[in-house]
Amino acid sequence: EDQVTQSPEALRLQEGESSSLNCSYTVSGLRGLFWYRQDPGKGPEFLFTLYSAGEEKEKERLKATLTKKESFLHITAPKPEDSATYLCAVQGRSSYKLIFGSGTRLLVRP
Amino acid sequence: DGGITQSPKYLFRKEGQNVTLSCEQNLNHDAMYWYRQDPGQGLRLIYYSQIVNDFQKGDIAEGYSVSREKKESFPLTVTSAQKNPTAFYLCASSIMSATNEKLFFGSGTQLSVL
């Protein structure tokens, strides 16, 4: 069964304190791994898609990496506006639908 | 601007009542989806549609119904059979390409029971 586990559930950082969020997955043939950002009371906003192990993508202070078992979302020198819930999802080759993790709630304090 | 519009933002349901959540997109996407989000849980798929006049059940379809009469519209009805409807409901769409199932989400509807 396809499964996604995100850790930690919540993370508090001081502004400028870099860290990483983890997304571990089990899927029968990875078709794509997706990262989304969700602000309270709003819909998720797309960040990255990763397709194969070793792939990396960057956007401002965020960098996503992928291995055969997990993905990391690295946040470098975060700012308070980076505070949000970050969702990870995978799509396997045997199924059309995305499987979402429960998310990591990030709080960046000034 | 292109996007997905969900309405209403907040909805209250009385016991035994059916309520309908609206979802409209002007992105010309073929596929549309309904997800349910509960606190501390991942998004769970209720229904999805890949083409007009066709839709499939997701993981938690019981107590819900949908229609897809137009490409732009995918309304969700929460029926009285859904005993625990309080949740945040998200509508999404995608292009349905073979290489990228990136989803575009609406801003959500918070449904509560009176």
Short description:
Chain A is mainly beta and 110 residues long.
Question: What does this protein look like?
Answer:
The complex is a heterodimer of chains A (110) and B (114). Chain A has 110 residues and is mainly β. Helix content of chain A is 0%, strand content 59%. Chain A has strands spanning 3-7, 10-14, 19-26, 30-38, 45-50, 56-59, 62-66, 70-75, 84-92, 99-100, 104-109. The radius of gyration of chain A is 13 Å and the shape is globular. The N and C termini of chain A lie far apart (41 Å). Chain B is mostly beta strands. Chain B has strands at residues 4-7, 10-13, 19-25, 31-37, 44-51, 54-57, 64-66, 76-78, 87-94, 104-105, 109-113. The mean pLDDT of chain B is 92. The chains are: A mainly beta (110), B mainly beta (114). Chain A binds chain B through residues 4, 9, 31-32, 34, 36, 41-46, 49, 51, 87, 89, 91, 96-103, and chain B through 4, 6, 35, 40-45, 48, 50, 58, 88, 90, 92, 99-108, 110.
The structure class of chain A reads mainly beta
Mean pLDDT of chain A: 95
Strand count, sense and barrel status of the largest sheet of chain A are:
6 strands, mixed
Number of strands of chain A: 11
Q: What is the structural class of chain B?
A: mainly beta
The number of helical runs of chain B is 0
Helix and strand string of chain A, N-terminal first? EEEEEEEEEEE
* Helix content range of chain A: under 10%
Ends apart, CA distance between termini of chain B? 35 Å
β-strand percent of chain A reads over 45%
Note poorly predicted spans of chain B: none
Overall geometry of chain A comes to globular
SSE series of chain B: EEEEEEEEEEE
Task: Choose one word for the global shape of chain B.
Answer: globular
Biggest interface pair, counts: A-B, 25 and 26 residues
Instruction: Characterize the quaternary organization of these chains.
Output: heterodimer
